[in-house]
Structure formats: C-alpha cells, structure tokens
C-alpha cells in the first residue's frame, strides 16, 4: 500500500508541476498583419462581406470598433506600430520609411521578443521594406526572395518587381512591357498560387516546425491583400454579385471641405486601366474596383482560415495570442478619393482583433485605441522584460478584461502635414505649414450627426468652442509631433 501511495503522490506532484509550468509558460504570438484592410467585415456588422474565418476569430476574442492608425500610409504606419512611437515631422513620414533610418536606436517590438527568448519569424510584409531591421528577426522571408530570386537583384529590388503579382499571361506581359499592369485580376487558380497563398503555406510549415521547439514564438503572416492590384482567385470574385455592389453615397468631396485637404491618390493612377489624375474614374470602373477589393478580402479570409486550422490541428491554439490588425484603412471612392493617406476616417480606422489564452471575456470594445498601443499591450500580455521607457502608447489589456471600460479621450493621426485629433464624437484636422501658428486649412466633422463626414463644420459659430479646444490640444499635447524642428526624435 505504501508503494502505491508513493506512486500516487509522485503522480500528483508531477501533475502539479506540469500545471505550474504551464501557468508560467510564455504564450506564443501569431500576428496577422493586413495591408489596406478597412473594418468592412462580417464581424463589424457588414453583412455583404464574406469573411467567416475572421468572424470566427473575432468571436473567440475581443474586437475593437474604434481602433485607429497613427498615419494612414503603409511604411510609416508599420514603423510607428512596431516601435511604439508616433510620427513626427521628421520621423515616419511616408510609405518609403525605413525604421533603421528614422529611429535607428529604437528597440522594436520584434527585437524585444527576440531578446526575451522568442523565436521571431517575419513572413510576408511586416516592415514595408524587406531589408529594414533584418536583425530584429531570426528569419525574414517573402515569396521568391533571397535564394529564389533572379540573379543580380537585391531583395528590395526583387520585392518591388513582385508587387504586382499577375498570373494571367496577358496581364503579366502587359506588366513586363509597361512596368504597370491592370488594377485587378480574376484568375482561375488555386488559393496557393498568388504570393499571399505562398506565404500562407510558409506560415503553416513554420507552425509545424515550431510545434517541436522548446521556445515560445513570435510568428507573423504579413498579407499583401487587399492592396492594389486587387488580384484574387476567381472563386472569391464569385462570392459577390456585381449588380449588388453599391457605390458609396458620400462619393464627392465633403461640403465646405477646403481644397487643400482634398488629397487625391496617385497610387491608383499607376495602373493601365485607370485614367490619369485629371479624369474621373467612371461608375462602371468604380464598381469593378470595389468588387475586386471585396474579392481580395474574401481571399485573405480563406487563407487565414487555413492558418487557424493548422494552429488548432497542432494544439497550439490554447497557448497562442492571435492578433489581426491592418496598417490603415482604405477609401473606395468615399469623398471622391481612392486608397489611403487622407485625413478621413475611412483612411484611419482599422480592424483590430485580439484573441488571447485565458481571456476573461469575449466580445467587442467601443473604447478608442491607436496602433502605438499595440507595443505595450504585447509587452504586458507576454510578460516581456526590459521594455523601453519611451513608448507613446499604453496597454489595452484592461480593455480586454473589461470591454465596458472607456479608452482614450483622443488619438493623433498624421498624414503629410495634416494633423487630426480624433475623439469619439469629433474629428478635427489642421493643415500646417512651417509656421505652425498659421493654420492653412481645417476641417471638423461631428460624428454624432455626420458619421460619413459629408459636412465640414469647422467654420460654423456653434462649433467655435470645439475648434478652439481641439486646436489648443493639438498645439500643446502633441507639440513634439507637429513641430517643424526636430523635438524628441529617437535617433
């Protein structure tokens, strides 16, 4: 009997030890990083969009309905989120941003994970440039790069040549001849054929390898879709009926919007089937573009489904934090504008979904958050050590545990030299020159009565006190960000 009792005691001790080890085991992180994805998804109450896999992820976690980027262009936004630093006039300015040039001494989020013993793998587009801060990772991978690239091409050059991934032979020839190509493609190919499909296969292979590792991992899946060109397998196009595609009702510049704030997108004009900047895109072409965008959203949703299924198959889902976020929003003809890098909410608002092990609650939070909050949030969720003292965001873990908590009173969004203070009710923007005391143009939208931002009320007497208070806030709390001379830049 004493021998049996001893065996039972040993087994009990081992069970307790395993339980304690599991409690202290660091969680893995899977970052699903989207490009140009607006929160037009089923889980965001947009029933016309087919996004069942993202919707399922949202049902397992917390969805934020008032999440905003800090700058609505890819390179700068990614640099800002991954350093936890807001843009200034001398840092994180545009899509060409390199973190290693603008903030070479910053401790980036992947660098911190790596220093805390995580295996860090960058798949797809994470930093805008393939060769930016490569030492932050144990591995950097993009489809066709490095050992698969054509002889003589540098990684950055090859990535630029790959940006427009045409599988239709006529489109591929057009791109080869013109260095441009059409703005969308519907091809009868498998989901694995385009670069996002190739990247998804790599992520799933990584999960299989990481399963047997004794280290936690920080694994990324950086999707290009739904970035231009809107290329997707035909089956995802077929999920939408063209006659049901609707153009936005606010497809003209807002009433009383200053001309200086009407910033046209040159990006979409780079494609062979799009007229030049001085011509209007027809309704027929606009409908096709929106249809194509929807198809790419459903395409990336299907790929996310494959990744999440692999995570579950390998029993990694119980100890992996999954984050889905986009670098910025997107305009689909709202305000007569296409793409991003505008001050409007369509450019700035992003989907943000966090699913974490042992999360106390699930659901949605209406609290206002910004992408610089992601750095301190991941630090807290994963218990990372030696985090930088200088971070511009704050952890949103309290919002994960209690979705009724209020978030920030305001966030800052910067596009070119237009600076926006966004509150739950208002969006206030100033266009500033070198003399920041002189406001070149301004706009105020009252979302309580004008969610679509169709009427600029900045010059109306009844809003003068709101304008004055938001102006004072911008020029006091965010003086470092709007100052024409370098103030507090991390170098």
Question: Top keywords for this entry?
Answer:
491 residues, alpha/beta, 8-stranded mixed sheet, 18% strand, globular
Provide a concise account of the structure shown.
The chain is of the alpha/beta class and 491 residues long.
Query: How far apart are the termini?
Result: 70 Å
Number of strands: 16
The chain-level structural class is alpha/beta
β-strand percent reads 15-25%
Choose one word for the global shape. globular
The major β-sheet equals: 8 strands, mixed
Q: If you average the pLDDT, what whole number results?
A: 91
Helical residue percent band: 25-40%
> Number of helix segments?
15
Q: What is the CA-based Rg, rounded?
A: 23 Å
Low-confidence stretches: 5-23
Biggest sheet: strand arrangement: 4-3-6-1-8-11-2-12
Describe this entry's structure for a reader.
The chain is globular, with a radius of gyration of 23 Å. The termini are far apart. A hairpin with a 6-residue loop joins strand 15 and strand 16 (439-446). It has an eight-stranded mixed beta sheet with strand order 4-3-6-1-8-11-2-12, with helices on both faces. It has 15 helices and 16 strands. Helix content is 32%, strand content 18%. The chain is α/β, with parallel strands linked by helices and 491 residues long.
Task: List the topology elements.
Elements: H1 2-24, E1 28-34, H2 52-60, E2 62-68, H3 74-83, H4 99-102, H5 109-115, E3 119-123, E4 139-141, H6 155-162, H7 169-178, E5 184-187, H8 195-211, E6 217-222, E7 230-233, H9 234-237, H10 283-313, E8 320-326, E9 331-332, E10 338-339, H11 345-348, E11 349-355, E12 363-370, H12 374-382, H13 397-401, E13 411-415, E14 418-422, E15 426-432, E16 439-446, H14 464-477, H15 479-482
Parallel strand pairs: 1-6, 1-8, 2-12, 3-4, 3-6, 5-7
Antiparallel strand pairs: 2-11, 8-11, 9-10, 13-14, 14-15, 15-16
């Amino acid at each position: 009997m004493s021998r049996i009792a001893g065996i039972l005691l040993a087994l009990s001790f081992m069970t307790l030890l395993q339980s304690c080890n599991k409690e202290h085991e660091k969680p893995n992180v899977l970052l699903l990083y989207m490009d140009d994805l607006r929160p037009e998804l089923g889980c965001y109450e947009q029933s016309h969009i087919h996004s069942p896999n993202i919707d399922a992820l949202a049902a397992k976690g917390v969805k934020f309905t008032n999440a905003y980027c800090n700058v609505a262009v890819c390179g700068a936004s990614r640099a800002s989120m991954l350093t936890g630093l807001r843009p200034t006039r001398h840092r994180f300015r545009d899509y060409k941003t390199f973190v290693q040039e603008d903030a070479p001494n910053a401790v980036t989020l992947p660098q911190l994970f790596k220093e805390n013993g995580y295996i860090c793998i960058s798949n797809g587009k994470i930093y805008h440039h393939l060769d930016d801060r490569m030492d932050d990772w144990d591995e950097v991978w993009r489809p066709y790069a490095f050992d698969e690239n054509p002889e003589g091409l540098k990684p950055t050059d090859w990535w630029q040549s790959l940006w427009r991934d045409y599988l239709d032979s006529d489109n591929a020839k057009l791109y080869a001849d013109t260095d441009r190509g059409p703005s969308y493609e519907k091809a009868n190919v498998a989901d694995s054929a385009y670069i996002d499909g190739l990247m998804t296969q790599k992520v799933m292979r990584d999960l299989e390898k990481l399963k047997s590792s004794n280290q936690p991992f920080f694994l990324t899946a950086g999707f290009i879709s739904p970035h231009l060109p809107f290329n997707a397998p035909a089956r995802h196009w077929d999920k939408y009926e063209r006659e049901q595609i609707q153009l936005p009702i606010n497809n003209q510049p807002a009433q009383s919007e200053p001309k200086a704030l009407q910033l046209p997108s040159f990006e979409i004009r780079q494609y062979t089937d799009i007229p030049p900047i001085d011509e209007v895109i027809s309704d027929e072409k606009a409908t096709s573009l929106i249809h194509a965008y929807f198809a790419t959203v459903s395409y990336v949703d299907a790929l996310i489904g494959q990744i999440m299924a692999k995570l579950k198959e390998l029993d990694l889902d119980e100890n992996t934090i999954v984050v889905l976020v986009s670098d910025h929003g997107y305009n689909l003809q709202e305000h007569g504008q296409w793409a991003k890098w505008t001050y409007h909410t369509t450019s700035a608002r992003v989907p943000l979904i966090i699913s974490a092990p042992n999360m106390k609650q699930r659901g949605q939070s209406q609290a206002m958050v910004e992408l610089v909050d992601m750095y301190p949030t991941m630090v807290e969720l994963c218990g990372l050590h030696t985090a930088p003292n200088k971070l511009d965001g704050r952890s949103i873990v309290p919002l994960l545990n209690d979705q009724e908590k209020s978030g920030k009173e305001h966030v800052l969004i910067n596009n070119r030299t237009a600076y926006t203070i966004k509150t739950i009710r208002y969006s206030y923007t100033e266009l500033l020159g070198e003399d920041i005391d002189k406001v070149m143009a301004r706009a105020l939208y009252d979302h309580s009565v004008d969610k679509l931002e169709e009427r600029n009320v900045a010059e109306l007497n009844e809003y003068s006190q709101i304008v004055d208070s938001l102006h004072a806030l911008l020029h006091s709390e965010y003086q470092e960000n709007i100052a024409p001379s370098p103030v507090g830049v991390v170098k």
